[in-house]
Protein 1
Amino acid sequence: MRVHKKTQDFYQISLKLILKNNVGQILILKAVDDGSFAGFYDLPGGRVDTDEFRTDLMEVVKREVREEIGNVKFIVKGKPVAVGRHLLLKKSGSRQKDVHVLYVFFEAEYLGGETEISREHESYQWVRLQEIELDKFFTFGILEGVKMYLKK
């Protein structure tokens, strides 16, 4: 009998916020047309950098959120609430191979501050997840994570 040798996968980790305001809406970010989410929305947050291995994950979340939506005030509500997986396909020149990303979603309460989006997104809006067609707004790992979050 031949035994198939398994190869472990390697993932980049991306920390995402499900940022809720006081009326139950979450902040979603419209992706730019030339990115991996073109035509869809993203959530605030991003990947853990190489030099952040020993950095508290909440500090990484704060850095990423600040980079993407400015100096808004929020409180993260403890432990992760969902996960999702995303495949970034190899592009000629910029990536030598496909990249697997594991999203870890945290719920947070929006406390205030002006939203100033980065160049990674073209606009933002506040929505109630229960009132939108999720697969028209989200794709890949964000869609997977939002669906998991709604089942909690």
Protein 2
Amino acid sequence: LIPRRVLVRTQRARWGSSAADGTIRLNWRLVMLEPELVEYVVLHELAHLREKNHQAGFWGLLTSISPDCGLLRRRLTER
């Protein structure tokens, strides 16, 4: 899973996003999070390069590359 390009931006409501053209955008505020949460966001967006939605295929792929993704997702939403 290789993005076409990675941009670091100010995003008000998201930690990251993935576009149909393969671009991943990451919120610069990620630098203030614990490394494992940053890794989760990056892996989440990389998984969107293959699975564009949040249906079962996406979560299966993400779990295969980040077995603790459920716990990490909950920790991130508590922020």
Protein 3
Amino acid sequence: MINPENHEPIPENYFDAIRETARKSPYSKLLGLDFNEIRKDYACMHLPYKKELEQPAGIIHGGAIASLIDTAVVGAIFSNVKEMPKQIVTVDMHVHYLSAAKEVNLIAHAAVRRRGRTMVCLEVDVVNEATDKIVAHGELGFMMLYDKP
């Protein structure tokens, strides 16, 4: 599993700026997403349980889990950039659902696997907050877009 201790801390004001940007996103607000921790090339994000996130069988919808995965990586990406991109976009995402999550809060641990100038490859483990059992694993590719010089 992804270990935050393998990643260097970042200044608290930088964490606050990334967190505040995410909190302003209408979709993040709708889901209740929030960062717990951000380190260099690592981010931890919380998805609180809400009845509205359930699918008909009473488990948290896979789309909500995928949204958690796709949003958590943003903190890891911005935690360690040499030049601030104008925009970042998901270009590839694979999600492996490993167990059901029923009436539980979820925690995503996101980490950069490889970072280039314009492409970032990441992985995410989503765990049940109460048991630490892995619920899903994601692998993503993001493109960082810059203004042309």
Protein 4
Amino acid sequence: MRVLVQRSLNSKVTVSGKVTGEIDKGLVLLVGFTEGDSEKEIDYLVNKTLNLRIFDDENGVMNKSLLDTGGSILSISQFTLYAETNKGKRPSYVKALRSEEASKLYDLFNEKLREHVRVETGIFGADMLVSIQNDGPITILLESR
């Protein structure tokens, strides 16, 4: 499981011209799954994401987590995080988990996040337009293994 974390000032996702999720200050998460991912990996990355200290404290030092700041999450399914580009010019996605299984894990991931913070999402498998105002810019890749 991979989660690309971006600190955001304002972000939204649009599907077919309709906004399906929007946040102000918080995190945008691009989330991908691979074979063997389970609830254990989800729990690990939920904890890691929520406690990642990438928000400024009173002294301008990145010393606060999302839980400390009361921010929100925009979670976007992103199978392309498992793109393989070693051969040729066209990426291969064979390491990305099949859609049916990934959808279930993605829903579980978001449910676990919602136990702690407000979570907005796109639509799994849809063609989405994601607007991210990356603050910093801060971008961090988290992996479960």
